[in-house]
Design brief:
The protein is mainly α. It has four domains: 143 residues, no CATH class; 97 residues; 118 residues, no CATH class; 53 residues. It is 57% helix and 2% strand. A two-stranded antiparallel ribbon has the order 1-2. A two-stranded antiparallel sheet has the order 3-4. It is globular, with a radius of gyration of 25 Å.
Length: 480
């Protein structure tokens, strides 16, 4: 008898574990070489998805926001002088958020459409992974307009290059600068810091207190590079914060009026002068280049390699990352100077990642994306398109903290969360109705990952809609 080779199981693993689920016909496309199919997605030249065309840039959005804030300040001043009613002032303040909300909707809808239309969903999953690693959260008003631009302008172009370049692109992006308030960080011995100190001596405390802000430095060390157990001290955080003074954005008023509004701007008059020592290494005074030098060393640090390797292994393979995979990824990262394509290749080529048992429970956005891709559903109305993410508790770019969304099953499989998945699955299935066969859809989306028990339940369902809902809530579809 000829040897029968199962090609569909590896194809289904490739599409679901590494990507955002298979669209009709995708398993057949991947079947001949699932690993090569994945690697081709990250080795091909970068082309922005067509769905992102026409989106406003961070510079455009922030320039408009800065103008609106100046207008609000004038209105507030008028209110204090009795020339503006309290109601008018309230409307002016609310107007800032309303001005940014359309940008958020456009960016989130474009992001969703890009995933649903993509024939390279491994690449799209990596975009989401790094966007979450370098998280900013839209519950801070200014990020409503810029969270999507951080992903599109800093992460996508550097997705398959060196981590050091990705790191610099993110930390100098206006979204990260303003999310962590680094534009407000002033070196005590900088030109502006000394001027403020003299004013304090003459006039008492200034109304707007100036000083170091440690947010950006702390999150770079704790979340973006070394990790919480990275071996740095509080003194390293404070010194690094001093290094990063002057990393700001252009535009504003008075002392902050220099530079192109909304663009990254290094403000020398805010920068703390002098050489500085971080993690035992001395960095000579060199303006903005001093901070770049620190970032380069952090990117090359073995602790960073292990931190990133652990997060990648956890995201793609198991909540408790296999130690040998973490070691492998960290080793490749250091051997290839942080080349991310080499790291992705080591991940894809690791045999343990291709076991049939699914060890990762889908987060809400993974579940929604895979369901819509399987059903080939893309609502035209942006608000309808985004409603599922809000309903299931994972609104785009809204993790609530710089730590990003959690990546373990225990954070997503509570009773209330599962009930919401059931309700959404039933609603989507009723909308699709009899236009899709549940058995055919399961074959196209999951292939041989579907168990005989699940297949029988689909065949015996009372209606087409019920069968589709059963498919979406099956263990095979809920996991990857």
């Amino acid at each position: 008898m000829p040897l029968i080779v199962d090609t569909m199981t590896p194809a289904a693993i490739a599409a679901n574990r590494f990507g955002f689920g298979a669209r009709p016909g995708e398993l057949a496309a991947a079947a001949s070489d699932p690993r090569g199919w994945l690697l081709a997605q990250v080795r091909s030249p970068y082309q922005p998805p067509a769905e992102l065309d026409g989106l406003a840039s961070s510079r455009e959005i922030l320039a408009g926001y800065l103008r609106a804030r100046r207008e609000r300040a004038l209105e507030k001043k008028a209110a204090n002088q009795g020339a503006l009613s309290d109601e008018a002032l309230k409307l002016a303040v609310m107007g800032l958020g309303k001005q940014l909300q359309p940008y958020y909707i456009e960016q989130a809808a474009a992001r969703t459409r890009a995933v649903l239309a993509s024939d390279a969903s491994f690449r799209e999953r990596l975009v989401h992974f790094w966007s979450n690693h370098f998280a900013v959260s839209v519950d801070k008003q200014i990020c409503l307009g810029t969270a999507g631009t951080l992903e599109n302008e800093a992460i996508r172009p550097h997705l398959t290059g060196r981590f050091a370049d990705l790191l610099v692109a993110v930390e100098t992006h206006p979204a990260m600068i303003t999310y962590l308030d680094n534009q407000r960080s002033v070196g005590p011995h900088s030109e502006l810091g000394l001027r403020a100190a003299r004013r304090f001596d003459m006039e008492g405390p200034a109304k707007g207190k100036l000083g170091l802000n440690e947010n950006l430095a702390r999150e770079i060390l704790e979340l973006h590079t070394l990790g919480v157990d990275g071996g740095y001290s509080q003194a390293d955080v404070t010194t690094f914060a001093a290094v990063l003074t002057g990393w700001s954005i252009g535009g504003g008023e008075g002392r902050f009026a220099d530079g192109e509004p909304g663009a990254f701007e290094f403000r020398a008059n805010l920068h703390e002068p002098g050489s500085k020592t971080i993690l035992g290494r001395r960095y000579a005074e060199d303006g903005m280049a001093q901070g770049r030098a620190v970032l380069a060393d952090l990117a090359a640090h073995p602790k960073t390699a292990r931190h990133l390797a652990t997060k990648l292994a956890r995201h793609f393979v198991a909540d408790d990352p296999p130690a040998d995979l973490v070691d492998r990824l960290a080793r490749i990262y250091l051997a290839y100077d942080g080349n991310l394509t080499q790291v992705y290749g080591a991940l894809v080529q690791w045999d343990g990642a291709w076991q049939k048992d699914s060890r990762k429970f889908k987060q809400p956005f993974e579940f929604v994306y895979s369901a819509m891709r399987a059903f080939e559903v893309t609502p035209r109305d942006p608000k309808v398109l985004l409603a599922a993410f809000d309903a299931l508790g994972q609104r785009h770019w809204n993790p609530g903290s710089p730590a990003g969304w959690p990546d373990r099953q225990a954070d997503w499989d509570g009773a209330d969360a599962l009930m919401k998945r059931i309700e959404w699955s039933v609603a989507l299935s009723e909308r699709v109705g009899d236009s899709h066969s549940a058995v055919a859809t399961s074959d196209a989306a999951l292939g041989s990952l579907v168990t005989p028990l699940t297949r029988r339940s689909l065949e015996n369902a009372a209606s087409g809609a019920q069968a589709l809902a059963l498919l979406l809530m099956s263990p095979e579809f809920q996991r990857r």
